[in-house]
Structures are given as structure tokens and as C-alpha cells.
Amino acid sequence: MKTEALSGGQLPRRFELYAHGFRWTGDSLGDRREIDPGQVEICRRFLSACKPSKKAGVGSYGLKHVVERWASEYVSNGACIQAAIDLGLPVVPQFRGYSLFQALAGGSDSRFRDERPLNAYIGVSRGSVAHTAAGKAGG
What we know:
By secondary structure, this protein is α+β, with helices and mostly antiparallel strands. It has helices at residues 37-48, 60-71, 77-86, 99-104, 126-133; strands at 15-18, 21-24, 58-59, 91-95, 117-122. The protein has one domain (15-133).
């Protein structure tokens, strides 16, 4: 499913963003824990040190783990996505790639029968992520 990039600090009405990532507006499934503003600030500091990219190609879930190692502190997937949106970086919702396989395998968990956004691709250079990660938080 092709989705346009999100930016400018706002989500289209069809998306909601929580600590674990994207949800369709009105979707009753999933954790609805709010995003911690302190975690967003940590992610903002990290992403501000990275080189922006026009193409959203770095996955938010992997990026969140890089930020956690850099900051020596937990940050949520949603905090990483929100920071990218706040900074005006390209953000493209990423749909669960295993949904179709789970459904075809006869999985009983209905959460995997439909495509649901969760993670995102974020527009930062992979090389700059690695370079920033090599530095210390706040330094």
C-alpha cells in the first residue's frame, strides 16, 4: 500500500499516533499509551544531529533502538515518529509486512488479517544516523 509522506507537525485525520506507533483513527486494537514528551525531546536531539533525506528510508523501530543506545534511555517508537514529524522530516507509515503471511497461514489472531500501520520510514541519511550514534548523548 502506497502512502504519502507526512510532515509539517500534523497527522492526517485517518492516523493516530501513540507510544507504540501509528493506528488507524477509530481502530480499537492495540495499546493506546500516550507518548512521553521527554522521550520525544531525546529523539528530537538525536534526529536534529542527523542529515535529512528526501527519501524516507530508515525504519522507526530500528531507529528507536539506535536512539536508546545513544541516550542510554528508553524511547518509544511513537516518540521517534513524533520527533521526526515535529522536525519536518519525511515520515511514511510502514504497514506490517507479515500481516498477509499470518492470514494465509490461518493465524487466529485477527490483528494480523488487515494491513495496519505501526512503524514508519523516516527521512534521514543512514550514514548520518551511524555517525550521530557514535557520539554521546548531549555531546
